[in-house]
Amino acid sequence: MCGIVGYVGARQATPILVGGLRKLEYRGYDSAGVSVWSEGQSRVVRCRGKLAALEDKLVKEPAPGTIGIGHTRWATHGRPSDENAHPHKVGAISVIHNGIIENHLALRQELAASGSKFTSETDTEIFAHLIDRAVRGGAPDLTTAVRQALAKVHGAYAFVVMNDKDPSTLVAAKNASPMVVGLGDGENFIASDVTAILSETRRILFIDEGEMVTVTRDAVVITDFDGKPRTREPKVITWSAMQAEKGGYKHFMLKEIHEQPRAVADTLVGRVDLERDDVVLDDVKIDATKVKRIIFVACGTSYHASLVGEFMIEALARIPVEVELASEFRYRDPIVGPGDLVVAVSQSGETADTMAAVREAKGKGAQVLAISNVLESSIPRLADWAFYTHAGPEIGVASTKAFTTQLVSMALFAIYLGRRTGKLAAPRARELLAELLQLPTKMKDVIDHGAQLQVLARRYGNAHGFLFLGRGAQYPIALEGALKLKEISYIHAEGYAAGEMKHGPIALIDEHLPVVVLVPRGPNYEKAISNLSEVKARSGKILAIATRGDTDIGSTADEVVLVPDCPVELQPILTVLPLQLLSYYVADFKGTDIDQPRNLAKSVTVE
Ligand code: AGP
Protein backbone atom coordinates (compact mmCIF):
# COMPACT_ATOMS: atom_id res chain seq x y z
CA MET A 1 0.00 0.00 0.00
CA CYS A 2 1.84 3.16 -1.18
CA GLY A 3 0.95 6.81 -1.43
CA ILE A 4 0.90 8.66 -4.76
CA VAL A 5 0.51 12.38 -5.53
CA GLY A 6 0.59 14.40 -8.77
CA TYR A 7 0.38 18.15 -9.46
CA VAL A 8 0.13 20.31 -12.55
CA GLY A 9 -0.51 24.05 -12.34
CA ALA A 10 1.25 27.36 -11.88
CA ARG A 11 2.72 26.89 -8.42
CA GLN A 12 5.95 25.11 -7.45
CA ALA A 13 5.09 21.41 -7.42
CA THR A 14 7.58 20.06 -4.85
CA PRO A 15 6.09 21.66 -1.70
CA ILE A 16 2.63 20.46 -2.76
CA LEU A 17 3.89 16.93 -3.48
CA VAL A 18 5.82 16.68 -0.22
CA GLY A 19 2.88 18.07 1.72
CA GLY A 20 0.65 15.43 0.15
CA LEU A 21 3.12 12.64 0.84
CA ARG A 22 3.31 13.68 4.49
CA LYS A 23 -0.45 13.11 4.77
CA LEU A 24 -0.02 9.73 3.04
CA GLU A 25 2.84 8.37 5.17
CA TYR A 26 0.32 6.14 6.94
CA ARG A 27 0.10 4.28 3.61
CA GLY A 28 3.79 3.44 3.57
CA TYR A 29 7.07 4.88 4.73
CA ASP A 30 10.11 2.85 3.73
CA SER A 31 11.18 5.22 0.93
CA ALA A 32 9.92 8.33 -0.87
CA GLY A 33 10.63 10.42 -3.93
CA VAL A 34 9.51 13.08 -6.41
CA SER A 35 10.00 13.73 -10.09
CA VAL A 36 9.51 17.38 -11.11
CA TRP A 37 9.92 18.85 -14.60
CA SER A 38 11.72 22.09 -15.37
CA GLU A 39 13.79 23.44 -18.26
CA GLY A 40 13.38 20.51 -20.58
CA GLN A 41 13.56 17.54 -18.25
CA SER A 42 12.27 16.06 -15.01
CA ARG A 43 14.54 15.71 -12.03
CA VAL A 44 14.07 12.62 -9.83
CA VAL A 45 14.97 12.99 -6.15
CA ARG A 46 14.29 9.89 -4.03
CA CYS A 47 15.71 7.94 -1.12
CA ARG A 48 15.17 5.15 1.34
CA GLY A 49 13.71 6.06 4.69
CA LYS A 50 10.87 8.19 5.88
CA LEU A 51 9.72 11.38 4.21
CA ALA A 52 12.04 13.44 6.39
CA ALA A 53 15.00 11.84 4.61
CA LEU A 54 13.59 12.99 1.27
CA GLU A 55 13.02 16.51 2.61
CA ASP A 56 16.65 16.64 3.74
CA LYS A 57 17.79 15.46 0.32
CA LEU A 58 15.62 18.07 -1.42
CA VAL A 59 17.42 20.81 0.47
CA LYS A 60 20.67 19.68 -1.15
CA GLU A 61 19.05 18.71 -4.46
CA PRO A 62 16.14 21.10 -5.12
CA ALA A 63 13.48 20.07 -7.65
CA PRO A 64 11.95 23.26 -9.13
CA GLY A 65 9.03 23.14 -11.56
CA THR A 66 5.23 23.37 -11.82
CA ILE A 67 4.43 19.79 -12.79
CA GLY A 68 5.48 16.68 -10.91
CA ILE A 69 4.70 13.38 -9.21
CA GLY A 70 5.53 12.08 -5.73
CA HIS A 71 5.46 8.70 -3.97
CA THR A 72 5.82 7.18 -0.50
CA ARG A 73 6.48 3.45 -0.58
CA TRP A 74 5.31 0.35 1.29
CA ALA A 75 7.57 -2.23 -0.33
CA THR A 76 6.05 -5.38 -1.77
CA HIS A 77 8.49 -6.28 -4.56
CA GLY A 78 12.08 -5.15 -4.05
CA ARG A 79 13.54 -4.32 -0.68
CA PRO A 80 13.46 -0.74 0.63
CA SER A 81 16.40 1.08 -1.02
CA ASP A 82 17.25 4.21 -3.00
CA GLU A 83 17.19 2.21 -6.25
CA ASN A 84 13.78 0.71 -5.52
CA ALA A 85 12.26 4.00 -4.39
CA HIS A 86 9.76 5.62 -6.74
CA PRO A 87 9.51 7.53 -9.09
CA HIS A 88 11.12 5.24 -11.63
CA LYS A 89 12.42 6.96 -14.76
CA VAL A 90 13.15 5.28 -18.07
CA GLY A 91 14.17 7.59 -20.90
CA ALA A 92 11.81 10.58 -20.71
CA ILE A 93 9.15 8.67 -18.73
CA SER A 94 8.64 8.98 -14.95
CA VAL A 95 6.24 6.61 -13.18
CA ILE A 96 4.85 6.21 -9.66
CA HIS A 97 2.69 3.23 -8.68
CA ASN A 98 0.57 1.86 -5.87
CA GLY A 99 -0.32 -1.83 -6.25
CA ILE A 100 1.16 -5.08 -7.57
CA ILE A 101 1.77 -6.04 -11.20
CA GLU A 102 0.94 -9.73 -11.09
CA ASN A 103 2.76 -10.71 -14.31
CA HIS A 104 5.88 -8.71 -13.47
CA LEU A 105 8.31 -11.63 -13.81
CA ALA A 106 7.19 -12.55 -17.33
CA LEU A 107 7.24 -8.92 -18.45
CA ARG A 108 10.70 -8.35 -16.98
CA GLN A 109 12.06 -11.39 -18.79
CA GLU A 110 10.43 -10.33 -22.07
CA LEU A 111 11.76 -6.77 -21.84
CA ALA A 112 15.24 -7.86 -20.78
CA ALA A 113 15.39 -10.34 -23.65
CA SER A 114 14.77 -7.48 -26.04
CA GLY A 115 17.39 -5.24 -24.54
CA SER A 116 15.83 -3.36 -21.65
CA LYS A 117 18.23 -2.67 -18.80
CA PHE A 118 16.78 -2.61 -15.28
CA THR A 119 18.14 -0.59 -12.38
CA SER A 120 15.69 -1.77 -9.70
CA GLU A 121 13.99 -4.91 -8.34
CA THR A 122 10.54 -3.37 -8.59
CA ASP A 123 7.55 -4.31 -10.69
CA THR A 124 6.92 -0.58 -11.29
CA GLU A 125 10.05 -0.02 -13.36
CA ILE A 126 8.68 -2.55 -15.83
CA PHE A 127 5.73 -0.26 -16.52
CA ALA A 128 8.07 2.68 -17.17
CA HIS A 129 9.92 0.57 -19.76
CA LEU A 130 6.64 -0.38 -21.45
CA ILE A 131 5.58 3.26 -21.78
CA ASP A 132 9.01 4.37 -22.91
CA ARG A 133 8.87 1.75 -25.66
CA ALA A 134 5.36 2.82 -26.67
CA VAL A 135 6.44 6.47 -26.93
CA ARG A 136 9.54 5.57 -28.91
CA GLY A 137 7.38 3.25 -30.97
CA GLY A 138 5.37 6.20 -32.23
CA ALA A 139 2.44 6.55 -29.82
CA PRO A 140 0.98 9.98 -30.73
CA ASP A 141 0.63 11.11 -27.12
CA LEU A 142 1.25 10.00 -23.55
CA THR A 143 -2.33 8.86 -23.02
CA THR A 144 -2.07 6.47 -25.95
CA ALA A 145 1.33 5.21 -24.78
CA VAL A 146 -0.04 4.50 -21.30
CA ARG A 147 -3.05 2.76 -22.79
CA GLN A 148 -0.79 0.50 -24.86
CA ALA A 149 1.28 -0.34 -21.79
CA LEU A 150 -1.81 -1.08 -19.69
CA ALA A 151 -2.85 -3.73 -22.19
CA LYS A 152 0.19 -5.77 -21.14
CA VAL A 153 -0.07 -5.65 -17.35
CA HIS A 154 -2.31 -7.62 -14.98
CA GLY A 155 -2.82 -6.86 -11.32
CA ALA A 156 -3.81 -4.08 -8.96
CA TYR A 157 -2.48 -0.59 -9.71
CA ALA A 158 -2.81 3.15 -9.52
CA PHE A 159 -0.18 4.64 -11.85
CA VAL A 160 0.73 8.27 -12.52
CA VAL A 161 2.99 8.97 -15.49
CA MET A 162 4.88 12.04 -16.74
CA ASN A 163 6.77 12.53 -20.04
CA ASP A 164 9.61 15.03 -20.27
CA LYS A 165 8.58 15.69 -23.84
CA ASP A 166 5.05 16.73 -22.85
CA PRO A 167 5.50 18.75 -19.62
CA SER A 168 1.92 19.95 -19.44
CA THR A 169 0.26 16.57 -18.91
CA LEU A 170 -0.02 13.85 -16.29
CA VAL A 171 -1.67 10.56 -17.20
CA ALA A 172 -3.01 8.20 -14.54
CA ALA A 173 -4.73 4.80 -14.56
CA LYS A 174 -6.60 2.94 -11.82
CA ASN A 175 -7.39 -0.69 -11.30
CA ALA A 176 -8.15 -2.00 -7.78
CA SER A 177 -5.98 0.61 -6.04
CA PRO A 178 -7.41 3.92 -4.85
CA MET A 179 -7.12 7.16 -6.81
CA VAL A 180 -8.79 10.57 -6.78
CA VAL A 181 -8.39 13.75 -8.83
CA GLY A 182 -8.59 17.15 -7.13
CA LEU A 183 -9.87 20.14 -9.09
CA GLY A 184 -8.28 23.56 -8.58
CA ASP A 185 -8.31 26.92 -10.37
CA GLY A 186 -5.68 26.68 -13.10
CA GLU A 187 -4.24 23.63 -11.38
CA ASN A 188 -5.21 20.02 -10.77
CA PHE A 189 -4.11 17.20 -8.47
CA ILE A 190 -3.96 13.39 -8.46
CA ALA A 191 -3.65 11.38 -5.24
CA SER A 192 -4.21 7.99 -3.61
CA ASP A 193 -6.95 9.48 -1.49
CA VAL A 194 -8.48 12.72 -0.35
CA THR A 195 -6.12 13.08 2.62
CA ALA A 196 -3.21 14.17 0.44
CA ILE A 197 -4.90 17.12 -1.26
CA LEU A 198 -7.69 18.23 1.09
CA SER A 199 -5.64 21.27 2.08
CA GLU A 200 -5.48 22.27 -1.61
CA THR A 201 -9.03 21.53 -2.77
CA ARG A 202 -12.29 19.98 -1.59
CA ARG A 203 -13.59 19.37 -5.11
CA ILE A 204 -12.80 15.74 -5.80
CA LEU A 205 -13.39 13.33 -8.69
CA PHE A 206 -13.42 9.71 -7.51
CA ILE A 207 -11.90 7.55 -10.25
CA ASP A 208 -13.42 4.12 -10.84
CA GLU A 209 -11.90 0.74 -11.72
CA GLY A 210 -10.60 0.49 -15.27
CA GLU A 211 -10.40 4.24 -15.83
CA MET A 212 -7.63 6.54 -17.08
CA VAL A 213 -7.37 10.28 -16.57
CA THR A 214 -5.43 12.81 -18.63
CA VAL A 215 -4.76 15.85 -16.46
CA THR A 216 -3.46 19.29 -17.44
CA ARG A 217 -3.66 22.47 -15.43
CA ASP A 218 -6.96 23.41 -17.08
CA ALA A 219 -8.61 20.10 -17.95
CA VAL A 220 -9.31 16.57 -16.69
CA VAL A 221 -10.43 13.94 -19.21
CA ILE A 222 -11.65 10.56 -17.94
CA THR A 223 -11.87 7.52 -20.24
CA ASP A 224 -11.98 3.79 -19.89
CA PHE A 225 -8.94 1.74 -20.95
CA ASP A 226 -10.32 1.59 -24.50
CA GLY A 227 -10.50 5.37 -24.73
CA LYS A 228 -14.26 5.71 -24.36
CA PRO A 229 -15.08 8.95 -22.48
CA ARG A 230 -16.47 8.71 -18.95
CA THR A 231 -18.30 11.54 -17.20
CA ARG A 232 -17.98 12.21 -13.47
CA GLU A 233 -19.44 14.89 -11.25
CA PRO A 234 -17.03 16.30 -8.64
CA LYS A 235 -17.90 15.70 -5.00
CA VAL A 236 -17.36 18.44 -2.42
CA ILE A 237 -15.65 16.86 0.59
CA THR A 238 -16.77 18.04 4.02
CA TRP A 239 -14.48 15.76 6.08
CA SER A 240 -11.85 17.17 8.43
CA ALA A 241 -8.22 16.32 7.60
CA MET A 242 -8.13 13.70 10.40
CA GLN A 243 -11.33 12.09 9.16
CA ALA A 244 -9.86 12.00 5.67
CA GLU A 245 -6.74 10.13 6.88
CA LYS A 246 -9.11 7.49 8.24
CA GLY A 247 -10.93 7.43 4.94
CA GLY A 248 -14.00 8.83 6.63
CA TYR A 249 -14.01 6.03 9.25
CA LYS A 250 -14.12 6.97 12.92
CA HIS A 251 -11.01 4.93 13.78
CA PHE A 252 -8.11 3.34 11.91
CA MET A 253 -9.23 -0.02 13.32
CA LEU A 254 -12.63 0.24 11.63
CA LYS A 255 -10.95 1.38 8.41
CA GLU A 256 -8.58 -1.59 8.57
CA ILE A 257 -11.44 -4.01 9.25
CA HIS A 258 -13.02 -2.74 6.05
CA GLU A 259 -9.70 -2.96 4.18
CA GLN A 260 -9.46 -6.71 4.76
CA PRO A 261 -11.04 -7.87 1.47
CA ARG A 262 -8.52 -5.73 -0.42
CA ALA A 263 -5.63 -6.83 1.79
CA VAL A 264 -6.51 -10.51 1.28
CA ALA A 265 -6.86 -9.99 -2.48
CA ASP A 266 -3.44 -8.30 -2.55
CA THR A 267 -1.90 -11.13 -0.52
CA LEU A 268 -3.23 -13.67 -3.03
CA VAL A 269 -2.02 -11.77 -6.11
CA GLY A 270 0.61 -13.74 -8.03
CA ARG A 271 0.51 -16.71 -5.67
CA VAL A 272 -2.41 -18.80 -6.99
CA ASP A 273 -1.56 -20.99 -9.97
CA LEU A 274 -4.89 -22.43 -11.15
CA GLU A 275 -3.24 -24.06 -14.17
CA ARG A 276 -1.06 -26.27 -12.01
CA ASP A 277 -3.42 -26.42 -9.00
CA ASP A 278 -0.57 -25.07 -6.95
CA VAL A 279 0.78 -22.13 -5.03
CA VAL A 280 3.65 -19.92 -6.21
CA LEU A 281 5.91 -18.67 -3.40
CA ASP A 282 8.56 -16.64 -5.23
CA ASP A 283 11.35 -16.59 -2.70
CA VAL A 284 10.53 -19.69 -0.65
CA LYS A 285 12.54 -22.73 -1.67
CA ILE A 286 11.64 -25.28 1.00
CA ASP A 287 11.93 -29.00 0.25
CA ALA A 288 8.70 -30.09 1.94
CA THR A 289 9.68 -33.76 1.77
CA LYS A 290 12.59 -33.06 4.12
CA VAL A 291 10.53 -31.17 6.71
CA LYS A 292 9.96 -33.56 9.60
CA ARG A 293 8.22 -31.06 11.89
CA ILE A 294 7.04 -27.46 11.76
CA ILE A 295 7.23 -25.26 14.84
CA PHE A 296 5.44 -21.92 14.83
CA VAL A 297 6.79 -19.20 17.11
CA ALA A 298 4.76 -16.03 17.60
CA CYS A 299 3.03 -13.72 20.08
CA GLY A 300 -0.48 -12.40 20.56
CA THR A 301 -2.68 -12.33 17.50
CA SER A 302 0.14 -13.82 15.41
CA TYR A 303 0.19 -16.74 17.86
CA HIS A 304 -3.52 -17.24 17.24
CA ALA A 305 -2.92 -17.20 13.48
CA SER A 306 -0.26 -19.85 14.03
CA LEU A 307 -2.73 -22.06 15.90
CA VAL A 308 -5.02 -21.89 12.86
CA GLY A 309 -2.02 -22.63 10.64
CA GLU A 310 -1.46 -25.82 12.62
CA PHE A 311 -4.89 -27.11 11.61
CA MET A 312 -4.42 -26.11 7.98
CA ILE A 313 -0.97 -27.66 7.56
CA GLU A 314 -1.73 -30.89 9.40
CA ALA A 315 -4.99 -31.28 7.45
CA LEU A 316 -3.56 -30.52 4.01
CA ALA A 317 0.12 -31.53 4.18
CA ARG A 318 0.10 -34.07 7.03
CA ILE A 319 3.31 -32.62 8.50
CA PRO A 320 3.37 -32.57 12.32
CA VAL A 321 3.02 -29.02 13.65
CA GLU A 322 3.67 -27.47 17.07
CA VAL A 323 2.82 -23.93 18.06
CA GLU A 324 4.87 -22.12 20.67
CA LEU A 325 4.56 -18.79 22.42
CA ALA A 326 7.80 -17.12 21.44
CA SER A 327 8.27 -15.76 24.97
CA GLU A 328 8.22 -19.33 26.34
CA PHE A 329 10.14 -21.01 23.51
CA ARG A 330 13.13 -18.73 23.80
CA TYR A 331 13.84 -19.62 27.45
CA ARG A 332 13.03 -23.31 27.44
CA ASP A 333 16.20 -24.63 25.83
CA PRO A 334 13.86 -26.15 23.23
CA ILE A 335 14.51 -29.44 21.50
CA VAL A 336 14.80 -28.20 17.94
CA GLY A 337 17.32 -28.72 15.16
CA PRO A 338 17.99 -29.85 11.58
CA GLY A 339 14.87 -31.29 9.95
CA ASP A 340 12.69 -28.81 11.82
CA LEU A 341 11.16 -25.85 10.01
CA VAL A 342 10.51 -22.99 12.40
CA VAL A 343 7.91 -20.51 11.13
CA ALA A 344 8.09 -17.10 12.81
CA VAL A 345 4.86 -15.12 12.40
CA SER A 346 5.06 -11.41 13.08
CA GLN A 347 3.09 -8.52 11.54
CA SER A 348 5.73 -5.96 12.51
CA GLY A 349 8.70 -8.25 12.01
CA GLU A 350 10.20 -6.59 15.10
CA THR A 351 8.70 -8.37 18.14
CA ALA A 352 11.55 -9.00 20.54
CA ASP A 353 10.34 -12.37 21.85
CA THR A 354 9.78 -13.71 18.36
CA MET A 355 13.15 -12.42 17.22
CA ALA A 356 14.83 -14.17 20.15
CA ALA A 357 12.96 -17.38 19.37
CA VAL A 358 14.24 -17.23 15.80
CA ARG A 359 17.81 -16.78 17.04
CA GLU A 360 17.36 -19.75 19.41
CA ALA A 361 16.07 -21.95 16.58
CA LYS A 362 18.79 -20.94 14.13
CA GLY A 363 21.42 -21.50 16.80
CA LYS A 364 20.22 -25.10 17.09
CA GLY A 365 20.30 -25.75 13.36
CA ALA A 366 16.67 -25.32 12.34
CA GLN A 367 15.68 -23.56 9.14
CA VAL A 368 13.39 -20.53 9.56
CA LEU A 369 10.58 -19.08 7.46
CA ALA A 370 9.24 -15.67 8.45
CA ILE A 371 5.65 -14.62 7.71
CA SER A 372 5.55 -10.85 8.08
CA ASN A 373 3.80 -7.72 6.86
CA VAL A 374 6.83 -5.44 6.75
CA LEU A 375 9.37 -6.04 3.98
CA GLU A 376 12.96 -6.26 5.18
CA SER A 377 12.00 -5.94 8.84
CA SER A 378 14.31 -7.60 11.36
CA ILE A 379 12.70 -11.04 11.63
CA PRO A 380 12.44 -11.70 7.84
CA ARG A 381 16.03 -10.50 7.48
CA LEU A 382 17.14 -13.03 10.12
CA ALA A 383 15.14 -15.89 8.59
CA ASP A 384 16.20 -18.17 5.74
CA TRP A 385 13.06 -17.34 3.77
CA ALA A 386 10.32 -14.70 3.97
CA PHE A 387 6.64 -14.86 3.01
CA TYR A 388 5.06 -11.40 3.05
CA THR A 389 1.45 -10.55 3.68
CA HIS A 390 0.36 -7.53 1.64
CA ALA A 391 -1.96 -5.91 4.17
CA GLY A 392 -0.32 -2.50 3.96
CA PRO A 393 0.58 -0.55 7.09
CA GLU A 394 -1.61 -1.50 10.05
CA ILE A 395 -2.03 1.58 12.23
CA GLY A 396 -4.56 0.37 14.80
CA VAL A 397 -2.87 -1.39 17.72
CA ALA A 398 -5.47 -4.16 17.59
CA SER A 399 -4.45 -6.34 14.67
CA THR A 400 -7.18 -7.11 12.14
CA LYS A 401 -6.14 -7.10 8.46
CA ALA A 402 -2.70 -8.43 9.40
CA PHE A 403 -4.42 -11.38 11.07
CA THR A 404 -6.67 -12.36 8.18
CA THR A 405 -3.82 -11.97 5.68
CA GLN A 406 -1.71 -14.19 7.97
CA LEU A 407 -4.49 -16.80 7.85
CA VAL A 408 -4.59 -16.61 4.05
CA SER A 409 -0.79 -16.96 4.00
CA MET A 410 -1.09 -20.06 6.21
CA ALA A 411 -3.63 -21.55 3.80
CA LEU A 412 -1.36 -20.83 0.81
CA PHE A 413 1.61 -22.35 2.64
CA ALA A 414 -0.41 -25.45 3.64
CA ILE A 415 -1.45 -25.98 0.02
CA TYR A 416 2.16 -25.39 -1.13
CA LEU A 417 3.40 -28.05 1.30
CA GLY A 418 0.55 -30.48 0.63
CA ARG A 419 1.18 -30.44 -3.12
CA ARG A 420 4.85 -31.26 -2.44
CA THR A 421 4.34 -33.92 0.19
CA GLY A 422 1.82 -35.54 -2.13
CA LYS A 423 -0.87 -35.41 0.56
CA LEU A 424 -3.00 -32.85 -1.29
CA ALA A 425 -4.43 -34.04 -4.60
CA ALA A 426 -4.85 -31.60 -7.47
CA PRO A 427 -8.68 -31.52 -7.45
CA ARG A 428 -8.81 -30.66 -3.74
CA ALA A 429 -6.07 -28.05 -4.18
CA ARG A 430 -7.99 -26.53 -7.10
CA GLU A 431 -11.13 -26.32 -4.99
CA LEU A 432 -9.31 -24.63 -2.11
CA LEU A 433 -7.54 -22.16 -4.39
CA ALA A 434 -10.80 -21.22 -6.09
CA GLU A 435 -12.38 -20.73 -2.68
CA LEU A 436 -9.45 -18.54 -1.55
CA LEU A 437 -10.03 -16.30 -4.55
CA GLN A 438 -13.68 -15.94 -3.54
CA LEU A 439 -12.83 -14.94 0.02
CA PRO A 440 -12.56 -11.15 -0.53
CA THR A 441 -16.15 -11.07 -1.78
CA LYS A 442 -17.39 -13.20 1.11
CA MET A 443 -15.42 -11.11 3.61
CA LYS A 444 -16.99 -7.93 2.25
CA ASP A 445 -20.41 -9.55 2.60
CA VAL A 446 -19.78 -10.21 6.31
CA ILE A 447 -18.30 -6.77 6.97
CA ASP A 448 -21.16 -5.03 5.18
CA HIS A 449 -23.54 -6.65 7.70
CA GLY A 450 -21.61 -5.01 10.56
CA ALA A 451 -24.61 -3.02 11.80
CA GLN A 452 -25.92 -6.16 13.50
CA LEU A 453 -22.77 -6.29 15.64
CA GLN A 454 -23.26 -2.66 16.58
CA VAL A 455 -26.69 -3.57 17.95
CA LEU A 456 -25.26 -6.53 19.89
CA ALA A 457 -22.48 -4.33 21.26
CA ARG A 458 -25.02 -1.96 22.76
CA ARG A 459 -27.08 -4.85 24.12
CA TYR A 460 -24.18 -6.62 25.84
CA GLY A 461 -21.55 -3.87 26.15
CA ASN A 462 -22.11 -3.43 29.90
CA ALA A 463 -21.29 -7.06 30.69
CA HIS A 464 -18.56 -7.63 33.29
CA GLY A 465 -16.96 -10.29 31.12
CA PHE A 466 -17.31 -12.41 28.00
CA LEU A 467 -16.56 -16.03 27.23
CA PHE A 468 -15.62 -17.11 23.70
CA LEU A 469 -15.89 -20.80 22.76
CA GLY A 470 -14.80 -22.74 19.70
CA ARG A 471 -13.76 -26.21 18.61
CA GLY A 472 -11.04 -27.26 16.17
CA ALA A 473 -9.73 -24.33 14.13
CA GLN A 474 -12.46 -22.20 15.73
CA TYR A 475 -10.74 -22.48 19.11
CA PRO A 476 -7.92 -20.09 18.07
CA ILE A 477 -10.63 -17.76 16.73
CA ALA A 478 -12.25 -17.83 20.17
CA LEU A 479 -8.88 -16.86 21.65
CA GLU A 480 -8.52 -14.07 19.07
CA GLY A 481 -12.02 -12.75 19.71
CA ALA A 482 -11.31 -12.60 23.43
CA LEU A 483 -8.01 -10.80 22.84
CA LYS A 484 -9.62 -8.22 20.54
CA LEU A 485 -12.33 -7.47 23.08
CA LYS A 486 -10.10 -7.16 26.12
CA GLU A 487 -7.34 -5.14 24.48
CA ILE A 488 -9.60 -2.35 23.20
CA SER A 489 -12.64 -2.36 25.55
CA TYR A 490 -10.79 -3.39 28.75
CA ILE A 491 -13.59 -5.89 29.52
CA HIS A 492 -12.21 -9.19 30.76
CA ALA A 493 -12.74 -11.95 28.20
CA GLU A 494 -11.56 -15.51 27.88
CA GLY A 495 -11.29 -17.80 24.89
CA TYR A 496 -11.75 -21.50 25.57
CA ALA A 497 -11.90 -24.77 23.72
CA ALA A 498 -15.62 -25.53 23.83
CA GLY A 499 -14.92 -29.09 24.91
CA GLU A 500 -13.24 -27.74 28.04
CA MET A 501 -16.42 -26.19 29.43
CA LYS A 502 -17.24 -29.08 31.74
CA HIS A 503 -13.69 -29.04 33.12
CA GLY A 504 -14.20 -25.74 34.91
CA PRO A 505 -15.35 -22.69 32.90
CA ILE A 506 -18.99 -23.77 33.08
CA ALA A 507 -18.95 -22.51 36.66
CA LEU A 508 -18.76 -19.01 35.19
CA ILE A 509 -22.07 -19.30 33.35
CA ASP A 510 -24.99 -17.21 34.52
CA GLU A 511 -27.50 -14.79 32.97
CA HIS A 512 -24.97 -11.95 33.15
CA LEU A 513 -22.25 -13.61 31.08
CA PRO A 514 -22.46 -13.31 27.28
CA VAL A 515 -21.01 -16.44 25.67
CA VAL A 516 -19.87 -16.09 22.06
CA VAL A 517 -19.82 -19.50 20.39
CA LEU A 518 -18.23 -20.17 17.02
CA VAL A 519 -20.35 -22.87 15.47
CA PRO A 520 -20.01 -22.91 11.67
CA ARG A 521 -21.18 -26.00 9.84
CA GLY A 522 -18.67 -28.84 9.78
CA PRO A 523 -17.44 -31.93 11.65
CA ASN A 524 -17.61 -30.20 15.06
CA TYR A 525 -21.09 -28.71 14.61
CA GLU A 526 -23.09 -31.24 16.64
CA LYS A 527 -20.62 -31.21 19.54
CA ALA A 528 -20.56 -27.41 19.53
CA ILE A 529 -24.36 -27.39 19.66
CA SER A 530 -24.27 -29.62 22.73
CA ASN A 531 -21.89 -27.12 24.34
CA LEU A 532 -24.44 -24.41 23.57
CA SER A 533 -27.11 -26.42 25.35
CA GLU A 534 -24.92 -26.66 28.46
CA VAL A 535 -24.69 -22.87 28.46
CA LYS A 536 -28.40 -22.44 27.74
CA ALA A 537 -29.34 -24.74 30.61
CA ARG A 538 -27.53 -22.33 32.96
CA SER A 539 -29.19 -19.20 31.58
CA GLY A 540 -26.06 -18.02 29.79
CA LYS A 541 -26.61 -15.48 26.99
CA ILE A 542 -25.50 -17.08 23.72
CA LEU A 543 -24.19 -15.17 20.71
CA ALA A 544 -23.64 -17.77 17.97
CA ILE A 545 -21.51 -17.23 14.85
CA ALA A 546 -22.91 -19.76 12.38
CA THR A 547 -23.09 -20.56 8.68
CA ARG A 548 -25.65 -18.83 6.47
CA GLY A 549 -28.53 -21.24 5.90
CA ASP A 550 -28.37 -22.71 9.40
CA THR A 551 -32.01 -22.60 10.48
CA ASP A 552 -31.56 -24.68 13.66
CA ILE A 553 -29.13 -22.53 15.63
CA GLY A 554 -31.79 -19.90 16.42
CA SER A 555 -33.66 -22.32 18.65
CA THR A 556 -30.70 -22.46 21.04
CA ALA A 557 -28.83 -19.17 20.66
CA ASP A 558 -30.14 -15.79 21.84
CA GLU A 559 -28.36 -14.00 19.00
CA VAL A 560 -27.20 -15.43 15.66
CA VAL A 561 -24.67 -13.87 13.29
CA LEU A 562 -24.42 -15.74 9.99
CA VAL A 563 -21.39 -15.88 7.70
CA PRO A 564 -21.18 -17.33 4.16
CA ASP A 565 -20.22 -20.98 3.75
CA CYS A 566 -16.73 -22.03 2.66
CA PRO A 567 -14.42 -25.04 3.17
CA VAL A 568 -13.82 -25.85 6.83
CA GLU A 569 -10.10 -25.04 6.52
CA LEU A 570 -10.90 -21.45 5.47
CA GLN A 571 -13.82 -20.78 7.84
CA PRO A 572 -11.64 -18.99 10.46
CA ILE A 573 -10.99 -16.19 7.93
CA LEU A 574 -14.73 -15.44 7.91
CA THR A 575 -15.76 -16.27 11.49
CA VAL A 576 -13.20 -13.86 12.98
CA LEU A 577 -14.79 -10.87 11.22
CA PRO A 578 -17.93 -10.58 13.41
CA LEU A 579 -15.67 -10.84 16.49
CA GLN A 580 -13.50 -7.95 15.26
CA LEU A 581 -16.62 -5.86 14.66
CA LEU A 582 -18.17 -6.84 18.01
CA SER A 583 -15.03 -5.84 19.91
CA TYR A 584 -14.79 -2.59 17.95
CA TYR A 585 -18.39 -1.57 18.62
CA VAL A 586 -18.25 -2.57 22.30
CA ALA A 587 -15.14 -0.41 22.71
CA ASP A 588 -16.75 2.43 20.76
CA PHE A 589 -19.82 2.12 22.99
CA LYS A 590 -17.55 2.35 26.05
CA GLY A 591 -15.60 5.25 24.57
CA THR A 592 -12.11 3.76 25.00
CA ASP A 593 -9.11 4.82 22.89
CA ILE A 594 -9.57 2.20 20.21
CA ASP A 595 -6.58 2.93 18.00
CA GLN A 596 -4.17 3.35 20.90
CA PRO A 597 -5.52 1.38 23.88
CA ARG A 598 -4.03 2.04 27.31
CA ASN A 599 -0.76 0.22 28.17
CA LEU A 600 -0.34 -1.17 24.63
CA ALA A 601 2.11 -0.53 21.77
CA LYS A 602 1.72 -1.56 18.16
CA SER A 603 5.02 -3.41 18.13
CA VAL A 604 6.48 -4.93 21.31
CA THR A 605 10.18 -4.52 20.61
CA VAL A 606 11.16 -5.02 24.26
CA GLU A 607 10.87 -8.15 26.41
C1 AGP B 1 -2.83 -7.87 18.40
O1 AGP B 1 -4.11 -7.27 18.40
C2 AGP B 1 -1.93 -7.27 19.47
N1 AGP B 1 -1.75 -5.89 19.21
C3 AGP B 1 -0.65 -8.04 19.74
O2 AGP B 1 -1.04 -9.23 20.37
C4 AGP B 1 0.25 -8.44 18.54
O3 AGP B 1 -0.40 -9.40 17.75
C5 AGP B 1 1.54 -9.07 19.10
O4 AGP B 1 2.22 -8.08 19.84
C6 AGP B 1 2.46 -9.64 18.02
O5 AGP B 1 2.88 -8.60 17.17
P1 AGP B 1 3.64 -9.01 15.81
O6 AGP B 1 2.65 -9.76 14.98
O7 AGP B 1 4.02 -7.69 15.19
O8 AGP B 1 4.82 -9.85 16.16
Structural account:
This protein starts with a strand and ends in a 17-residue tail after the last helix. The chain is α/β, with parallel strands linked by helices and 607 residues long. It contains 18 helices and 27 strands. Helix 9 runs parallel beside helix 13. The protein has three domains: 3-238, 4-Layer Sandwich (Glutamine Phosphoribosylpyrophosphate, subunit 1, domain 1), CATH 3.60.20.10; 249-446, 3-Layer(aba) Sandwich (Rossmann fold), CATH 3.40.50; 449-607, 3-Layer(aba) Sandwich (Rossmann fold). The strands form five sheets. Strands 3-2-4-1-10-9-11-15 form an eight-stranded antiparallel β-sheet, with helices on one face. It binds 2-deoxy-2-amino glucitol-6-phosphate (AGP). 2-deoxy-2-amino glucitol-6-phosphate is lined by residues 299-302, 346-348, 351, 354, 397-399, 487, 603-604. 2-deoxy-2-amino glucitol-6-phosphate (AGP) is lined by residues 299-302, 346-348, 351, 354, 397-399, 487, 603-604.
Major beta-sheet overview: 8 strands, antiparallel
Q: Determine Rg (CA atoms, Å).
A: 25 Å
Quickly count the domains: 3
CATH architecture verdict of the largest domain: 4-Layer Sandwich
In short:
This protein is α/β, with parallel strands linked by helices and 607 residues long.
Please name the defining characteristics of this protein.
alpha/beta; 607 residues; globular; binds 2-deoxy-2-amino glucitol-6-phosphate; Rossmann fold; 8-stranded antiparallel beta sheet; 24% strand
